């Protein structure tokens, strides 16, 4: 769902651009803050993309999904976040109709890809823990790459139809605003496809994931009592999978915490955009901040990302065969 979508029944009222009645210093502070958050988002996700793409040890199914999420977050930092924050600061859309159309499609695309990728992460962890043998045989990096490409292609086609087909694209212009006008039926379908279905799947699967992880932990403690040497490799593998599930669970929980306020607010509060820090604008910013927070989560909890950062910042990635370095 677009972060600035309104129902077609809403009236597009004229919106002049009087500008903010604030001092120049406040403007500077707001723009510096907006630029800093955007830059942090771009740099953090670029480091994730470089790490997963460069080091062959990181070419795993779970990390490919993380790569997809980082690319969508990068789109938010490069394109969506600067334009939207500028609109909020100015209380007026000043970038023209072409950039408005571009913002709509990129905004829709990044949002739907992010939500569906997090749902795929939940599916991946559920399969890895519930059916480890089937997972190791059937779920390869190639399979996940195909699924990821399909996710991006599906989102692109779906969002193009939502925005520009079936009468949703109109010639109505709102001076000073960048609004996607969507009819009630399409808006309801979008709510189901981009929010209700994937979030319900995420919650259900991660509930099962943590139940399975707890059961595995109990089983491993039982095995340790017997101190079976032959099963030590399996215990290490199970422990690794449980740790991966827990860490990705943190990612999913933070994602839902950033996602839910916007969708709850969009259902009960109409969008105005007339006031600085309108309630719905605040929830949109929280949504955007998830793209900034994700790389921070990787840096705090993922040892492979910490090692990758060290190799990147010390320029060892430029060494011959650096892609084969051990980062696990």
> How confident is the prediction overall: mean pLDDT?
80
**CATH superfamily placement:** Rhodopsin 7-helix transmembrane proteins
Number of helices: 9
Order of helices and strands: EHHHHHEHHHH
Structural class: mainly alpha
| CATH topology annotation | Rhopdopsin 7-helix transmembrane proteins
Compute the separation of the termini in Å: 37 Å
> How many individual β-strands?
2
Return the domain count: 1
Using the coordinates above, name the CATH class.
Answer: Mainly Alpha
**Rg calculated over all Cα atoms:** 22 Å
Main sheet: strands, sense, barrel: 2 strands, parallel
Pfam families: 7tm_1
Organism: Cyprinus carpio carpio
GO cellular component, one term: plasma membrane
GO molecular function: trace-amine receptor activity
Would you kindly provide a written description of the structure presented here, covering whatever features stand out?
With 328 residues, the protein is mainly α. Helix content is 73%, strand content 2%. The chain has helices at 24-54, 61-90, 96-130, 132-138, 141-164, 184-226, 232-268, 279-301, 303-313, and strands at 5-7, 180-182. It has a two-stranded parallel sheet with strand order 1-2. Helix 6 (184-226) runs antiparallel to helix 7 (232-268) and helix 8 (279-301) crosses helix 9. It is globular, with a radius of gyration of 22 Å. The two termini are 37 Å apart.
